[in-house]
Design goal:
binds fe (iii) ion, 8-stranded mixed β-sheet, globular, alpha/beta, 22% strand, binds N-(iminomethyl)-L-glutamic acid
């Protein structure tokens, strides 16, 4: 497949970088005007200026005319909860009337509400609903995604969710990573017995998940009213015995200590970070852990936005993800995430692009295969309608911008 007449290729990053940090997010992310790009065997095999394209290059296969659109890497959404049953629009009015996320959860809404519905929903129906969301995300330019369990909250239902994720991996061309989030909330049968729930998670759920090879990563909602730093440490230690690395929810509702406990256990990423301060930034600087922020949750819940600008200034490889879930971010639109990053977090459009592509890929362990335009990387990219600049994409944040989306070299 040969893509011709590209007004500019964006997101060109030297192949040796599996992430970009700090100033490099702007400085090492290049562009090339008036370009072509050649795909072979699902990989980017060559790209360059149109003027260097030879007549013979056209003979090699199918030609796609970008017709003056831009080409940018597909979004890599490293934090989602898209396997859930139904929705939580029933809580929307409570929210409008002023109830907080925590208050809704305390009244039996929230995550436990989703767990009840998931319990009553068959695996096939869950798969069908989740695949609709996958299709919606792909249509909006996402080519790789992480999906968490965490609406089961008992062994059978957590396994049901993870099996759905395994089926999604087979069914979609997008890259998918699975994360076990049994510690999303304390399951109903363990109400008021958090310690016993954590014991059960470690002795029963985790071995079952590991035995079926259903999770690449483990997550804990380490936050006020959910799981403590001690619970988190125990779970991460147990997961490490199965070789399962953490990606954790930290500092959404309070400065929970979640960042530090994640780093201590070698977390691939720590996510949310709405309440991050200097100590967390300093700890992240000493680590390989990727700080991932989720501005869609800040938008929907009216929370502070994570300090992405300060984190970039501190030299960190900031990633951005959608957090697509029924309670705090009912949207998987990564272009909207880019827009919020620019408008609310003061990232530049280029930094926001790197944060939603290469750094998101890195937060799924895929930074050397996906997330940028480089020879040898998987050919997953968006061809846009003609747009005046990269900035136009987050600026005109509801104007349709995608003309075509390719995953692994195939148009989807
Ligand atoms: O990332 N914070 C915890 N988990 C999700 C919300 C889950 C839900 O409310 O269903 C989040 O925001
Ligand atoms: Fe989340």
């Amino acid at each position: 497949m040969l893509i011709v007449n590209i007004a500019s290729i964006q997101g060109i990053i030297p192949g040796e970088y599996d992430r970009l940090a700090g100033k490099d997010m702007e400085a090492r992310c290049g562009e090339l005007a008036d370009a072509y790009l050649l795909v072979e065997n699902g990989l980017i095999s060559r790209f360059g200026p149109m003027s260097e394209l030879a007549e013979a290059d056209y003979a090699s296969g199918e030609v796609f005319d970008a017709a003056g659109g831009m080409l940018l890497p597909s979004f890599c959404d490293s934090h989602t909860h898209i396997v859930y049953a139904g929705s939580r629009d029933g809580e929307f009015l409570d929210k409008i009337n002023g109830l907080s996320y925590e208050e809704i959860a305390r009244r039996g809404g929230g995550i436990l509400n989703s767990a009840d519905r998931l319990h009553e929903t068959s695996e096939d129906e869950l798969f069908r609903q989740a695949m609709e969301r996958v299709g919606e995300m792909i249509a909006k330019g996402t080519g790789a995604m992480e999906i968490k369990s965490g609406y089961g909250l008992n062994t059978a239902d957590e396994l049901k969710m993870l099996r759905v994720i395994a089926r999604i991996k087979e069914a979609t061309p997008a890259a998918v990573k699975a994360t076990f989030l049994g510690a999303h909330a304390v399951g109903r049968e363990y109400a008021g017995r958090r310690g016993d729930y954590v014991d059960m998670l470690i002795s029963e759920m985790l071995p079952a998940v590991a035995a079926e090879g259903l999770a690449e990563y483990v997550d804990v909602f380490c936050d006020e009213g959910f799981f403590t730093v001690e619970d988190t440490g125990r779970i991460l230690e147990a997961a490490a015995r199965y070789g399962i690395r953490p990606k954790i929810h930290a500092n959404e509702l309070a400065n929970s200590g979640g960042v530090q406990v994640g780093i201590r256990h070698g977390a691939l990423s720590v996510d949310h970070l709405e309440r991050m301060e200097a100590a967390e930034i300093a700890a992240l600087r000493e680590s390989d852990t990727i700080p991932t922020m989720l501005p869609g949750a800040s938008f929907f819940l009216g929370m502070p936005y994570g300090p992405a600008r300060a984190a970039v200034e501190a030299g960190l490889p900031v990633a951005l993800a959608s957090d697509y879930n029924p309670g705090s971010s009912p949207s998987g639109d990564m272009r909207m995430v880019m827009a919020l990053a620019c408008i609310k977090m003061k990232l530049t459009p280029r930094e926001a692009l790197v944060a939603t592509t290469l750094n998101g890929a890195a937060a799924m362990g895929l930074g050397s295969e996906l997330g940028s335009i480089a020879v040898g990387k998987r050919a997953s990219f968006i061809v846009t309608r003609p747009v005046p600049s990269l900035a136009f994409i987050p600026y005109a944040y509801t104007t349709p911008f995608i003309a075509a989306h390719f995953i692994g070299g195939r148009q989807v």
